[in-house]
């Protein structure tokens, strides 16, 4: 999900709607308004215009959330959180997002909600918990929750029946839009009486639906208005589905007509594009088109260019810098409606093959120098990957689903998407899987459970993974299951048992070869943690540095900062706060690169302990405030095997409160909580930031 993207074209015929909606919202009698209407009627554009009209009345801003690419209703709150700059929030996502929103006077715009209606209760919950927030939803169906006001968005007003001049067209919103788009695509077209009459009739046939007008007028590049009208007649003369409103039948007819004007190869590619979620790269389109519709790779780009020209497909740069081919949601839904039969079976299979390969390639990259680039790539493709998992689970291909889940677990860990990963892993485990894959899905379920704080469930999953690995003499599976059992014991402070598991995992990790190197580095670190908790800092450092060396050799940021965190704890135990600061600052920078907010929270808290030793109470307070915000954002501890001396943080907090005074301390904590993660990193690394006015002075005077 992302911000709502609105084409930079003029809005016609909605002044009355904007005025009525603005008056409704300004009256203060409702804070949940749903714009309903058929696909393509202009709900998104109307929401954008209303947002612009009301912007000055919401000092904390307009928060736009596009939901078209969100696959799962459980992802709605996460999408809102990301729009707020939060990470995915785990099982307490609703409370975390509400905590961020409750003090804001904002307009929250949720676009394309119709496929996520089971999340309506979450929206109602936010309205209830956030009294200053107004929610504006666009959806084909109302949410049907208490307090909702439904506003039906109708088609644009039509021109008079007998159009004889361009002015007759232009005085109506639908006619003005049609003329505007016609001039844009065919500037040399003469507005003769015959052309004007044909355009007027065309406007009537298109029922004033903006998207239908946009699609139809795109063909004026190559057809005269009369030819366009003649071809439109072929499909609009056939009734649509009888239980749909007439304007939706017309929209379907328009899309049927646009589809009918495509060549067979263009039709095949357009239909196949319906299998994607959130768009796709050229390479993905090429592979799926070849695997499902037998379209030669050399032709795909040319066909895509023609679909873009016909306004059936759009192209835009993605967040990872790669160009993505997408469709407006009504068009995408139409493509999906045509994707049936054997073509659908082949397209789903080819789509899953593409995203399985991508996920498995990324899983290798996560442990090396290009870790950050792979995380960004998978974030862009996450809607497609989740769709591939869900379809293969529903389509009796649990092996493909299991392989994708195993490849995705570390991404979900780093991004805090614990519920999404755990639910799919546990669903997959209800299917029949080969033992080796079953064990790996148990590992994925274990890590998601552990990160979410369910240590008991994680222990069971890890034990089962170890059993399957030992039975099959699968060293990778056995070593990861054994080390996981150690993590569960460590979280329960059963140090002797944890140490035994970690030691036993080391020879297994060596036996596993390249697949065990990542685990070997972490097992050394975790064994060092046990030694540190036993009061043996020198022994701990020796173990942890072995793990750190292995991590640095591979460019593995995650294993590196896990080692650095534990080295910082050892340095603090030895009274070497300067060394602890060095370790912490490196780890903070690495956490920022991977966007691992859960890890960053731990580092900021430990840096606050170091700042307390340096007599910097203001920095202590700001860092602790920033860490609290991050913890609330993630909604889970995640790194339950980080076991710092909590008394040191409590002492740092108390000393800072005493030095600053309660009010100044609270102001500094609030200033830290207000920092975005990137700014918290900059502050931690020594940057001068303009904190909130009530935050007090810094520790350097002034």
From TrEMBL:
Pfam families attached to this UniProt entry: AAA_16, HTH_77
Alphabetical list of InterPro entries matching this protein: AAA_16, HTH_77, P-loop_NTPase, TPR-like_helical_dom_sf
Domain of life where this protein originates: Bacteria
UniProt domain Orc1-like AAA ATPase: residue ranges: 10-61
Domain Winged helix-turn-helix residues, every copy: 262-339
PANTHER family: HTH-TYPE TRANSCRIPTIONAL REGULATOR RV0890C-RELATED (PTHR47691:SF3), REGULATOR-RELATED (PTHR47691)
Name of the protein this chain belongs to: Uncharacterized protein
Lineage: Bacteria, Bacillati, Actinomycetota, Actinomycetes, Propionibacteriales
């Amino acid at each position: 999900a992302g911000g709502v993207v609105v084409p930079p074209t003029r809005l016609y015929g909605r002044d009355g709607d904007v005025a009525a909606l603005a008056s409704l919202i300004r009256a203060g009698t409702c804070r949940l308004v749903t714009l309903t209407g058929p696909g393509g009627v202009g709900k998104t554009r109307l929401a954008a215009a209303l947002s612009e009209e009301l912007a000055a009345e919401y000092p904390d801003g307009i928060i736009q959330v596009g939901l078209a690419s969100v696959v799962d209703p459980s992802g709605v709150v996460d999408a809102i959180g990301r729009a707020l700059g939060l990470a995915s929030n785990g099982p307490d996502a609703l409370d975390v997002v509400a905590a961020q929103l409750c003090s804001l006077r904002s307009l929250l715009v949720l676009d394309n909600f119709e496929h996520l209606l089971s999340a309506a209760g979450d929206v109602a919950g936010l309205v209830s918990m956030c009294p200053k927030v107004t929610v504006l939803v666009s959806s084909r169906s109302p949410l049907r929750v208490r307090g909702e006001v439904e506003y039906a968005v109708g088609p644009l007003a039509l021109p008079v029946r007998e159009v004889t001049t361009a002015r007759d067209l232009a005085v109506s919103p639908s006619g003005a839009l049609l003329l505007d788009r016609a001039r844009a695509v065919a500037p040399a077209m003469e507005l003769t009486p015959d052309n004007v009459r044909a355009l007027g009739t065309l406007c009537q046939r298109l029922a004033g639906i903006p998207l239908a007008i946009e699609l139809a007028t795109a063909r004026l590049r190559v057809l005269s208005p009369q030819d366009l009208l003649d071809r439109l007649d072929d499909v609009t003369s056939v009734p649509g589905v009888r239980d749909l409103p007439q304007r939706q039948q017309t929209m379907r007819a328009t899309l049927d007509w646009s589809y009918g004007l495509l060549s067979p190869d263009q039709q095949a590619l357009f239909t196949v594009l319906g299998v994607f979620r959130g768009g796709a790269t050229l390479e993905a389109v090429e592979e799926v088109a070849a695997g499902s519709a037998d379209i030669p790779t050399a032709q795909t780009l040319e066909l895509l260019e023609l679909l873009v020209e016909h306004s059936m497909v759009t192209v835009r740069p993605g967040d990872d810098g790669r160009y993505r081919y997408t469709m407006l949601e009504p068009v995408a839904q139409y493509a999906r409606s045509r994707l049936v039969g054997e073509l659908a079976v082949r397209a789903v299979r080819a789509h899953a093959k593409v995203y399985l390969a991508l996920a498995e390639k990324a899983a290798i990259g996560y442990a090396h120098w290009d870790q950050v680039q792979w995380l960004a790539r998978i974030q862009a493709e996450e809607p497609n990957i989740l769709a591939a998992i869900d379809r293969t689970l529903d389509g009796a291909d649990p092996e493909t689903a299991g392989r994708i889940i195993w490849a995705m677990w570390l991404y979900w860990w780093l991004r805090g998407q614990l519920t999404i990963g755990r639910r799919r892993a546990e669903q997959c485990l209800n299917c029949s899987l080969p033992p080796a894959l079953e064990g790996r899905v148990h590992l994925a379920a274990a890590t998601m459970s552990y990160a979410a704080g369910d240590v008991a469930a994680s222990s069971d999953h890890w034990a089962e993974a170890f059993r399957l690995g030992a039975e099959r003499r699968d060293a990778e599976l056995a070593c990861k299951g054994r080390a996981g059992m150690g993590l569960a014991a460590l979280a329960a402070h059963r140090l002797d048992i944890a140490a035994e598991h970690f030691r036993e995992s080391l020879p297994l990790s060596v036996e596993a070869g390249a697949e065990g190197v990542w685990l070997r580095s972490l097992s050394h670190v975790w064994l060092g943690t046990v030694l540190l908790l036993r009061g043996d800092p020198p022994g701990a450092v020796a173990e942890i540095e072995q793990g750190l060396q292995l991590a640095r050799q591979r460019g593995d940021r995650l294993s590196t900062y896990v080692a650095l965190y534990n080295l910082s704890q050892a340095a603090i135990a030895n009274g070497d706060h300067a060394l602890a600061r060095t370790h912490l600052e490196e780890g903070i920078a690495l956490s920022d690169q991977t966007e691992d907010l859960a890890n960053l929270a731990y580092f900021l808290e430990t840096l606050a302990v170091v700042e307390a030793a340096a007599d910097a109470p203001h920095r202590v307070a700001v860092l602790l405030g920033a860490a609290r915000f991050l913890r609330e954002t993630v909604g889970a501890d995640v790194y339950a095997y980080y076991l710092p001396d909590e008394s040191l943080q409590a002492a740092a907090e108390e000393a800072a409160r005493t030095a600053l005074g309660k009010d100044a301390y609270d102001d500094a904590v609030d200033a830290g909580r207000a920092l975005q993660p990137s700014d918290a990193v900059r502050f931690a690394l020594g940057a001068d930031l303009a904190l909130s006015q009530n935050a007090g002075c810094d520790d350097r005077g002034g």
